[in-house]
TrEMBL record:
Protein name: Na(+)/H(+) antiporter NhaA
Membrane-topology descriptor: Multi-pass membrane protein
GO cellular component, one term: plasma membrane
Location of the protein in the cell: Cell inner membrane; Cell membrane
Translocase listed as a keyword: no
Bilayer-crossing regions: 52-70, 91-112, 118-137, 144-167, 173-192, 199-215, 221-237, 249-267, 279-304, 316-335, 355-374
Keyword list, A-Z: Antiport, Cell membrane, Ion transport, Membrane, Sodium, Sodium transport, Transmembrane, Transmembrane helix, Transport
Family note: Belongs to the NhaA Na(+)/H(+) (TC 2.A.33) antiporter family.
GO molecular function annotations of the record: sodium:proton antiporter activity
Top-level taxon of origin: Bacteria
UniProt catalytic activity: Na(+)(in) + 2 H(+)(out) = Na(+)(out) + 2 H(+)(in)
Known role: Na(+)/H(+) antiporter that extrudes sodium in exchange for external protons.
Highest classification ranks of the organism: Bacteria, Bacillati, Actinomycetota, Actinomycetes, Micrococcales
The species this protein was found in: Herbiconiux oxytropis
GO terms, biological process: regulation of pH
Length: 393
């Protein structure tokens, strides 16, 4: 199980699953897979009746968002974002990485009626970005790694807020209120995990989590928000143990399964000129908008705070961080589903654009990270040689 925790392996599985889904959808078995994805599975005696695809994107993906929320809480309390001074610089870069792609998307799609898809290119897939960094980034200094990690985490916070605010219409306040009670009880029971009644507490928490997820889904709020809320209220130390236990499941099963399901798209037999505006908006905004937005935000953040505490990040390092931010993948695919839920043909083109845009960002970021890593390795060798010469003198 240890190998599945690897950021490199997680990124590979995610990419392989998406490629397999796209290939399978365009072969003879494609129609059968699409019918299976649309088949409904209901829980008898409950109002829960979702398609297989929605059980994956609304149900299983909530577990992934729970893991993300636990990591967010850890970083905000004892990690790299536990003070304003630590968080402000990557926060400015993250906001730039959200604003510029959104503006580019809106500019490209202006007048098309599809401007509401602006959140799609604003997301960063933290697992994939860190996977690229792990594969190609030997020798990258810790300050850049920390900056990229903080940037990706803050980007996830923005994505969660966007999903909660912009993809919720007329929520059922009764169900939402009951879900809030479920979240509060879940947090309270998590305090008993260190006592004698640990196993009972675990059983109660599983039941509360399932009930809370169901209530959030029935309220009209996207059900993944239940995972976020539960992860944020759980006591930090046991939550980190749960995260560790769930990591192989999210990396090895949930995320690849979601990537496969989301990539089950028949490539449209149309000329490039016939592709809808969202395709071009996403394709341009992800790899280009993220680089511009994050690099510009990172540069502006270099003027914030006391000079001696500002991290020294070169323009090349900021461009590298921006390229990594352009790997939208998981969250961008989810936002694409939500934004174009009523227009499946546009959603299919959006999925292709997310996959292509993210692939471009993967290639560009791999090249930039490799070159940056090689530069810092040479620098270390030169410094070591200088030290030896001085010692010999």
């Amino acid at each position: 199980m240890g190998i599945i925790r690897s950021e490199r392996v997680a990124a590979f599985l995610l990419l392989a699953a998406a490629a397999l889904g796209l290939i399978a959808a365009n072969t003879a078995i494609g129609p059968a897979l699409l019918r299976l994805q649309d088949a409904h599975l209901a829980i008898p005696g409950t109002p829960l009746d979702l398609s297989v695809g929605h059980w994956i994107s609304d149900g299983l993906l909530a577990v992934f968002f729970f893991v993300v929320a636990v990591e967010l809480k850890n970083e905000l309390t004892v990690g790299q974002l536990n003070s304003v001074s630590k968080a402000v610089r990557p926060a400015i870069a993250a906001l730039g990485g959200v604003a510029v792609p959104a503006l580019i998307y809106v500019a490209v799609t202006a007048g098309s009626g599809y401007e509401g898809g602006w959140p799609i290119p604003t997301a960063t897939d933290i697992a994939f970005a860190l996977g690229v960094l792990a594969v190609f980034g030997r020798g990258i200094p810790s300050r850049l790694r920390i900056f990229i990690l903080a940037l990706a985490i803050l980007d996830d916070i923005v994505a969660i807020v966007i999903i909660a605010v912009f993809f919720t219409a007329d929520p059922n306040l009764v169900f939402l209120g009951l879900a809030a009670i479920g979240v509060a009880l879940f947090g309270l029971v998590s305090r008993l995990l260190g006592g004698r009644h640990r196993m009972l507490a675990v059983a109660v928490m599983i039941v509360l989590a399932a009930l809370t997820w169901s209530l959030v889904y029935l309220s009209g709020v996207h059900a993944t928000i239940a995972g976020v809320a539960l992860g944020l209220v759980m006591v930090r130390k046991p939550a980190m143990h749960v995260r560790h236990a769930l990591e192989p499941v999210t990396n090895g099963v949930i995320l690849p399964l979601f990537a496969f399901s989301a990539a089950l798209v028949a490539i449209p037999q149309v000329s490039p000129a016939e592709l809808a505006a969202p395709f071009w908006g996403i394709l341009i905004a992800l790899p280009v908008g993220k680089v511009i937005g994050i690099a510009l935000g990172g540069w502006l953040s270099s003027f914030v705070g006391p000079r001696e505490k500002r991290p020294h990040l070169t323009p090349y390092a900021l461009l590298t961080a921006g390229a990594l931010g352009g790997v939208g993948f998981t969250v961008s695919l989810l936002m694409n589903e939500l934004a174009f839920a009523s227009r499946p043909e546009v959603a299919d083109e959006g999925t292709l654009a997310v996959l292509l845009g993210s692939s471009i960002s993967i290639v560009v970021s791999a090249v930039l990270v490799s070159r940056l890593s090689a530069y810092y390795r040479r620098l270390r060798v030169l410094r070591a040689d200088a030290v030896r010469r001085l010692s010999g003198a």
